[in-house]
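hi! just following up on the protien thing from before. the input was this:
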Amino acid sequence: MRLYDSRAQALRDFTPLDETNITMYVCGPTVQSGPHIGHLRAALAFDLLRRWLEHRYGRVTFVRNVTDIDDKVLQNAAAEEPWWALAYRMEREFTAVYDAIGILPPTYEPRATASIPQMQEFIERLISRGHAYASGGDVYFSVRSWPEYGALTRQDIDAMDSDADADPRGKRDPHDFALWKQAKPGEPDDASWSSPWGMGRPGWHIECSAMSHRYLGDAFDIHGGGLDLRFPHHENELAQSAAAGDPFAQYWMHNGLVTVDGQKMSKSLGNFTLARDMLDAHPARVVRYALVAAHYRSSLDISEQGLAEAAAALERIDGFVQRAERAVGSVTPRVPAAFGEAMDDDLGIPQALAVVHETVRAGNVALDQGEPADIRGAFSAVSGMMGVLGFPLAVDGSAHGAEAQALATIIDSLISQRAEARAAKDWAAADRIRDLFADAGVALEDTPDGTIWSIDG
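and the predicted 3d structure came back as:
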């Protein structure tokens, strides 16, 4: 298995620290406002990686944090909704949309506010090692004290922008970044904690170093996040963790960003698409398919055409699955070698989906030719592949709930009435029922074993 390591800027063979327990840390949301489709795309990329690693290795310890204290959280709070209430409400919105599109819950989902002591301990380690300094109630990381600063993004310090996420008043160097922020006048009293440097709250970057250390230890396998986090967030994480003496992440992975109809997503352009709006307009399975169809490192363009193509692709898969289940019954899922090779090659989802659709086409041919062994083989493979990709199969409509089950009952009843009409040679009645199916977009196929139906996609 090979993964693209953003730090090495190359594909690397994946060699886990412990093959019995793969460890992953993924930067979760800052919950100052609701999730947009970029958040969904990032979460899905690492959900797919986790699912494949679980298939390959068995156990994965997956940590995704929640940043519930931050400048933006405080700015968006109001008298009628304190910062902690806003953060909790937004966290629940993220959880709801993650659940809706089938993202597995993390093994641990720590909130920043629940790890303040661990962050303070981490800061004290950096101070004692000469890589951080206190200044007027703030604490800063000294970037020039760590010669490898810039290693993740391969930048020279002097070519970087100054760090804007800190008050410059006490900095020794404009590039130094805040580890601890002194409480400011006007901020709520409950938004600060006591510390050796006075009342205040943690900086953004220290949160993930402290929480990954707390839940995964000094070293872990994979650190993930969106491409927009590489600098400064992940660069600063790497520097402070390495300076504290931790081996930290063995592989760095970043997913590509999202555009809408070819344009960068932006509130000013009016194309800033909230996750809930998209899920209200499209079935969750379709949204999931549209967001995973491109390679995780590529830029992903979201459009109505892309969503329509995703819906059509799922209809083709569902149609085959429904026909196959009626023909041969249940099967044991398996993952074909070609699918595994695609997934092992830096999570090659487009190539893996191509294997799915090739298998569906072969399975439909087998159904048309009445070859049970080939039908079972294709059905088993499609079941296994779609399971790994996180798509419940629509066997007899069961994946779509009670409404589809009721539809299946009605269709089966009409098929029985048609069969009775044909047996009685009441051809007019039989043709009326068949025309009714055609008008409703239901395709019938008369076989020696009976009539089977599928939604005509």
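DSSP finds 14 helices and 15 strands in the chain.
The longest strand covers residues 219-226.
cheers
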